[in-house]
Amino acid sequence: MKAVLQYRASPGFRKRLRASAPEWLDIVVVDENDAYAVRRELENADVLLHVLTPVTAEMLDAAPRLKLVQKIGVGTNTIAVDAAKSRGIAVANMPGTNSQAVAEHTLALMLAALRRVAYLDSASRRGSGWNLPLDTFDTVGELSGRTVGFVGYGAIPRRLTAALVALGAQVVYYARNPAADPAARHLASLQALLAQADIVSLHIPLTPDTRCLLDADALRLMKPGAVLINTARGELIDEPALFDALQSGRVSAAGLDVFATEPTVADNPLLSLPNVVATPHIAWLTPQTLERSIAVIVENCRRLRDGEALLNLV
After folding, report:
1. Is 203 among the catalytic positions?
2. Per-residue CA distances from 296 to 44, 81, 161, 312 (Å)
3. Residue 235 bears catalytic tag
């Protein structure tokens, strides 16, 4: 069985794949930027291991033997799922494999945004760390005493809640299906959450209903001076509206791991703001996440080979 990983895999990831793949599974790693190599390798591939580069209908047409698109991660908005299904190609994802990594990165962005870590790091490197504008430290703060509002309350927010409560924060959330968690309070609407939360953190999938969920009107509902964190999908936010809210101070800071267009470009206006902390969609990416992902890859390939039900079909 041949599986093609379309990804700029690190040396460590390649080594783990080689060590973990059984003899019957040939995993070929192709740089996601090499379209010719991807098309060539897909000609006789049984499985496509997908990270972020979009899987289009045209790509699927170039893979006549393909039986499975295995998402490494959770979100499948970058996969032409209907096109795959119409061609008899299964699509599966990996819920839970990256939850710990994303939870920790979300917490890191909260702290970095509150304490202006990126701005202060840059000033320190310039040698001006003790010559900052006098109002700099009027704009920092602690997590303790804040209300953190999660939009969505799946595995990642649930992991974070205990840590946030231990640090002295209160946790509220808005979700379609309330959870039985005494440490967090469910709110009846997104509007109620935006009005109450000092920190708003997004943890929902990108769908037609959630695209630009936080538009200019929603951002105006946020508590003045609130912080916005996004480790979910960039298109959940209207980026020009967020730029205006950050520039005006209505939103005091943002921690963003995801952007509407990825990879984001240097001239994205959000990156020009000193109250934005940005990372390149790597909240999920740790060696531990990859170890858990490899285990799912091998198991689902085995199930595909043996004609058994696949894990986490989409």
Report:
1. no
2. 22, 20, 27, 10
3. no
